[in-house]
From TrEMBL:
Residues 3-103 form the RNA-binding protein Tab2-like N-terminal domain. Residues 106-261 form the RNA-binding protein Tab2/Atab2 C-terminal domain. InterPro entries: Tab2-like, Tab2-like_C, Tab2-like_N. It comes from the Bacteria. This is Tab2/Atab2 family RNA-binding protein. PANTHER family: PROTEIN TAB2 HOMOLOG, CHLOROPLASTIC (PTHR34556:SF2), PTHR34556. It comes from Calothrix parietina FACHB-288. Pfam families: Tab2-like_C, Tab2-like_N.
Length: 264
């Protein structure tokens, strides 16, 4: 499968007639492909993008174009639709972001303040948990879980983690709302689940390109201590962690499992 990463954004410089310039950058995960094109702002539209993607592709179009910047997404989606290419919004465009940083272009995307999960999705209870790296793959890959996000690039073995390494996570007992919560999370596209100290402390889920959701808040000192350990373990697991949604604590039925990784 041929996957590209692309960005189309206004750059700091202007042209000789003082017009704002938009620049298109396209690369693959190894940067063996690097394509650059620019145009004045008045030409920055899906028609121009369509022609540039055709030029970059030659005879073989990509299957997927990954985009991390919300301001780029709609235009690249329109160009992708013109060419029959799937456009995937994702924060994990590592090669592209490295290239942008080398060019001293901004990669930080403005994020809105976190908002609470919709009330009809609240689970009955939640807790911190830990699995060994070996169990992450074996405990869930063979179970009939309706929603399972276990991508190859995040599997502990592929990250070079030993099978005994502790992988921190959060378990939500959703009760009757368990499947509804799992479906909502699937559509939201979870990225990472972090402890945020404050008054009160909380767990904040980063999802999609810029969304942030308050999963839980707490003031209990014991929970805060467990939250700090959860965050410390993330640092030791290369940011790897998990989110598990199940109806209850019987261990018989699971609604959804997501393997996540901190971007930091």
């Amino acid at each position: 499968m041929k996957i590209w990463q692309a960005d189309f954004y206004r750059i700091p410089q202007q042209n000789t007639t003082k017009e704002n310039i938009w620049e298109l950058l396209i690369c693959d995960a190894t940067r063996s492909l690097e394509y650059v094109a620019s145009c004045p702002q008045k030409q920055a539209n899906s028609t121009w993008l369509t022609s540039q993607i055709q030029l970059a592709a030659g005879e073989q179009m990509p299957d997927i174009i990954q985009v991390f910047r919300p301001q780029s997404l709609s235009l690249i989606e329109a160009a992708g639709q013109n060419l029959g290419i799937t456009v995937e919004p994702t924060r994990r465009t590592l090669a592209l972001k490295q290239w942008l940083e080398e060019k001293q272009y901004p990669t930080v995307v403005d994020q809105p303040p976190p908002v609470p999960l919709p009330e009809n999705l609240w689970g009955e209870q939640w807790r911190f948990a830990t699995l060994t790296a070996g169990d992450v793959e074996t405990a869930f890959s063979d179970r009939p879980i309706p929603i399972l996000h276990l991508p190859e690039y995040l599997k502990p073995l592929n990250l070079g983690l030993p099978s005994t390494a502790p992988i921190p996570g959060v378990v939500i007992y959703g009760g009757r709302q368990s499947m509804r919560l799992a479906r909502w999370l699937h559509e939201a596209r979870p990225v990472e689940l972090n402890y945020v100290a404050g008054a009160p402390d909380g767990l904040v889920l980063a999802a999609g390109l810029v969304d942030r959701w308050i999963v839980a808040t707490f003031t209990d000192s014991e929970v805060a201590t467990a939250a700090k350990l959860y965050q410390q373990r993330q640092q030791l697991s290369r940011g790897l962690h998990f989110l598990l949604v199940q109806p209850d604590d019987s261990g018989m039925t699971y609604s959804g499992f997501w393997l996540l990784q901190s971007e930091r």
